[in-house]
Design a protein that fits this description.
Blueprint lengths: L17 H15 L11 H12 L7 H6 L1 E2 L9 E12 L5 E11 L4 E2 L1 H12 L2 E2 L1 H16 L3 E10 H4 L10 E8 H4 L1 H11 L8
Parallel strand pairs: 2-5
Antiparallel strand pairs: 1-4, 2-3, 3-6, 6-7
Helix pairs in contact: 1-2, 4-5
Length: 207
Protein backbone atom coordinates (compact mmCIF):
# COMPACT_ATOMS: atom_id res chain seq x y z
CA UNK A 1 0.00 0.00 0.00
CA UNK A 2 1.40 3.37 -1.02
CA UNK A 3 0.30 5.55 1.86
CA UNK A 4 1.42 8.92 0.51
CA UNK A 5 -0.05 8.91 -2.98
CA UNK A 6 -1.61 12.35 -3.50
CA UNK A 7 -4.57 11.07 -5.51
CA UNK A 8 -5.25 7.34 -5.78
CA UNK A 9 -7.80 7.65 -8.58
CA UNK A 10 -6.88 6.11 -11.93
CA UNK A 11 -5.17 8.79 -14.06
CA UNK A 12 -6.52 7.43 -17.37
CA UNK A 13 -10.16 7.66 -16.25
CA UNK A 14 -11.72 11.03 -17.11
CA UNK A 15 -13.67 12.69 -14.32
CA UNK A 16 -17.41 12.78 -15.01
CA UNK A 17 -18.98 16.15 -15.69
CA UNK A 18 -21.06 17.96 -13.08
CA UNK A 19 -24.10 17.38 -15.26
CA UNK A 20 -23.58 13.61 -15.32
CA UNK A 21 -23.02 13.59 -11.55
CA UNK A 22 -26.29 15.45 -10.99
CA UNK A 23 -28.05 13.03 -13.35
CA UNK A 24 -26.76 10.14 -11.26
CA UNK A 25 -28.27 11.72 -8.14
CA UNK A 26 -31.61 12.09 -9.96
CA UNK A 27 -31.46 8.39 -10.80
CA UNK A 28 -30.87 7.47 -7.16
CA UNK A 29 -33.80 9.63 -6.05
CA UNK A 30 -36.03 7.86 -8.55
CA UNK A 31 -34.67 4.47 -7.50
CA UNK A 32 -35.46 5.31 -3.87
CA UNK A 33 -39.07 5.86 -4.94
CA UNK A 34 -39.43 9.63 -5.11
CA UNK A 35 -39.88 12.17 -7.90
CA UNK A 36 -36.77 14.28 -8.58
CA UNK A 37 -38.99 16.84 -10.35
CA UNK A 38 -41.15 17.65 -7.34
CA UNK A 39 -40.57 21.07 -5.81
CA UNK A 40 -38.70 19.94 -2.71
CA UNK A 41 -36.21 17.88 -4.72
CA UNK A 42 -35.58 20.10 -7.73
CA UNK A 43 -32.33 21.50 -6.33
CA UNK A 44 -31.22 18.33 -4.56
CA UNK A 45 -28.94 16.91 -7.29
CA UNK A 46 -26.93 20.13 -7.39
CA UNK A 47 -26.77 20.33 -3.60
CA UNK A 48 -25.59 16.74 -3.34
CA UNK A 49 -22.83 17.31 -5.90
CA UNK A 50 -21.66 20.44 -4.05
CA UNK A 51 -21.68 18.48 -0.80
CA UNK A 52 -19.57 15.77 -2.44
CA UNK A 53 -17.04 18.43 -3.42
CA UNK A 54 -16.64 19.18 0.30
CA UNK A 55 -16.82 15.60 1.53
CA UNK A 56 -14.13 14.40 -0.88
CA UNK A 57 -11.94 17.48 -1.26
CA UNK A 58 -8.94 15.44 -0.11
CA UNK A 59 -8.52 13.94 -3.58
CA UNK A 60 -7.40 17.34 -4.85
CA UNK A 61 -4.70 17.91 -2.23
CA UNK A 62 -1.20 16.51 -1.79
CA UNK A 63 -0.36 15.34 1.76
CA UNK A 64 3.35 15.34 0.99
CA UNK A 65 3.31 19.05 0.13
CA UNK A 66 1.53 19.81 3.40
CA UNK A 67 4.42 18.30 5.39
CA UNK A 68 7.33 19.67 3.35
CA UNK A 69 7.41 23.06 5.07
CA UNK A 70 9.34 22.31 8.25
CA UNK A 71 11.43 24.15 10.81
CA UNK A 72 15.00 22.98 11.17
CA UNK A 73 15.67 25.14 14.20
CA UNK A 74 13.64 23.76 17.10
CA UNK A 75 15.90 24.89 19.98
CA UNK A 76 17.05 21.32 20.50
CA UNK A 77 13.51 20.07 21.18
CA UNK A 78 13.64 16.28 21.28
CA UNK A 79 10.45 15.15 23.01
CA UNK A 80 7.03 14.04 21.75
CA UNK A 81 4.99 16.45 19.65
CA UNK A 82 1.31 15.53 19.85
CA UNK A 83 -2.04 16.76 18.62
CA UNK A 84 -4.90 15.21 20.53
CA UNK A 85 -8.62 15.05 19.72
CA UNK A 86 -8.44 16.15 16.08
CA UNK A 87 -12.03 16.13 14.83
CA UNK A 88 -12.39 13.63 12.00
CA UNK A 89 -15.19 13.37 9.44
CA UNK A 90 -14.80 10.79 6.69
CA UNK A 91 -16.95 8.44 4.61
CA UNK A 92 -16.93 4.65 4.50
CA UNK A 93 -15.90 3.38 1.08
CA UNK A 94 -18.32 0.46 1.34
CA UNK A 95 -21.57 2.39 1.89
CA UNK A 96 -20.54 6.08 1.52
CA UNK A 97 -21.94 6.97 4.93
CA UNK A 98 -20.16 9.05 7.59
CA UNK A 99 -17.33 8.01 9.86
CA UNK A 100 -17.17 10.49 12.74
CA UNK A 101 -14.47 10.50 15.35
CA UNK A 102 -11.18 11.93 16.52
CA UNK A 103 -7.51 11.31 15.88
CA UNK A 104 -4.50 11.51 18.18
CA UNK A 105 -1.29 12.10 16.22
CA UNK A 106 2.23 12.24 17.62
CA UNK A 107 5.78 12.10 16.37
CA UNK A 108 9.20 12.11 17.99
CA UNK A 109 11.39 14.56 16.01
CA UNK A 110 14.86 13.58 14.92
CA UNK A 111 15.89 16.95 13.46
CA UNK A 112 13.01 18.90 11.94
CA UNK A 113 9.55 19.81 13.19
CA UNK A 114 6.45 20.77 11.25
CA UNK A 115 3.81 23.37 12.09
CA UNK A 116 1.23 21.71 14.31
CA UNK A 117 -1.64 22.83 12.09
CA UNK A 118 -0.09 20.74 9.31
CA UNK A 119 -0.73 17.56 11.29
CA UNK A 120 -4.41 18.41 11.58
CA UNK A 121 -4.47 19.27 7.88
CA UNK A 122 -2.88 15.94 7.03
CA UNK A 123 -5.65 14.10 8.87
CA UNK A 124 -8.21 16.23 7.03
CA UNK A 125 -6.78 15.46 3.58
CA UNK A 126 -6.87 11.71 4.05
CA UNK A 127 -10.24 11.80 5.83
CA UNK A 128 -11.83 13.70 2.94
CA UNK A 129 -11.63 10.61 0.74
CA UNK A 130 -13.52 7.34 0.64
CA UNK A 131 -11.91 5.37 3.43
CA UNK A 132 -11.76 2.47 5.78
CA UNK A 133 -10.44 3.41 9.20
CA UNK A 134 -7.51 1.03 9.17
CA UNK A 135 -6.17 2.50 5.93
CA UNK A 136 -6.76 6.08 7.09
CA UNK A 137 -4.75 5.41 10.26
CA UNK A 138 -1.86 3.93 8.30
CA UNK A 139 -1.86 6.70 5.70
CA UNK A 140 -1.51 9.46 8.28
CA UNK A 141 1.29 7.68 10.14
CA UNK A 142 3.18 6.61 7.02
CA UNK A 143 3.07 10.09 5.48
CA UNK A 144 4.61 11.63 8.60
CA UNK A 145 7.24 8.90 8.73
CA UNK A 146 8.13 9.22 5.05
CA UNK A 147 8.36 13.01 4.86
CA UNK A 148 9.66 14.05 8.30
CA UNK A 149 11.76 10.95 9.01
CA UNK A 150 11.28 11.25 12.78
CA UNK A 151 12.43 8.81 15.45
CA UNK A 152 8.88 7.53 15.65
CA UNK A 153 5.22 8.14 14.81
CA UNK A 154 2.04 7.19 16.67
CA UNK A 155 -1.52 7.54 15.38
CA UNK A 156 -4.70 6.43 17.11
CA UNK A 157 -8.16 7.00 15.65
CA UNK A 158 -11.42 6.49 17.54
CA UNK A 159 -14.56 6.70 15.42
CA UNK A 160 -18.19 5.70 15.05
CA UNK A 161 -19.26 4.25 11.70
CA UNK A 162 -22.79 5.00 10.55
CA UNK A 163 -22.68 1.97 8.28
CA UNK A 164 -22.86 0.06 11.57
CA UNK A 165 -24.99 2.38 13.70
CA UNK A 166 -27.76 3.35 11.25
CA UNK A 167 -28.03 0.27 9.03
CA UNK A 168 -27.14 -3.42 9.04
CA UNK A 169 -26.51 -4.56 12.59
CA UNK A 170 -27.63 -1.14 13.99
CA UNK A 171 -25.48 -0.93 17.10
CA UNK A 172 -25.25 2.72 18.21
CA UNK A 173 -22.56 3.68 20.70
CA UNK A 174 -19.93 1.34 19.28
CA UNK A 175 -16.53 2.97 18.75
CA UNK A 176 -13.81 1.53 16.51
CA UNK A 177 -10.22 2.14 17.63
CA UNK A 178 -7.26 1.70 15.31
CA UNK A 179 -3.59 2.46 15.85
CA UNK A 180 -0.30 2.52 14.00
CA UNK A 181 3.01 2.74 15.82
CA UNK A 182 6.29 3.29 13.99
CA UNK A 183 9.89 3.64 15.13
CA UNK A 184 10.44 4.27 18.83
CA UNK A 185 6.69 4.15 19.57
CA UNK A 186 6.72 0.56 18.37
CA UNK A 187 10.04 -0.58 19.81
CA UNK A 188 10.13 1.32 23.13
CA UNK A 189 7.32 0.41 25.54
CA UNK A 190 7.97 3.46 27.73
CA UNK A 191 7.61 5.85 24.76
CA UNK A 192 4.40 4.14 23.68
CA UNK A 193 3.09 4.34 27.24
CA UNK A 194 3.85 8.07 27.34
CA UNK A 195 1.85 8.55 24.14
CA UNK A 196 -1.19 6.77 25.60
CA UNK A 197 -0.84 8.74 28.83
CA UNK A 198 -0.87 12.01 26.93
CA UNK A 199 -3.76 10.87 24.74
CA UNK A 200 -5.91 10.07 27.76
CA UNK A 201 -5.00 13.11 29.86
CA UNK A 202 -7.79 15.37 31.08
CA UNK A 203 -8.65 17.97 28.38
CA UNK A 204 -7.49 21.53 29.00
CA UNK A 205 -10.04 24.08 30.15
CA UNK A 206 -10.41 26.46 27.18
CA UNK A 207 -11.18 29.30 29.60
Amino acid sequence: MDAVVANPSRPHRAKPTRESAEAAVRTLIEWAGDDPDREGLLGTPGRVVRAYEEFFSGYGEDPVEILRTTFEEAAGYDEIVMLRDIRLESHCEHHIVPIIGRAHVAYYPSRRVVGISKLARLVEIYAKRLQIQEVLTAQVADAIDTVLKPRGVAVVIEAAHQCMTTRGIKKPGVVTITSRMLGCFKTEPETRAEFYRLASARPLDPA
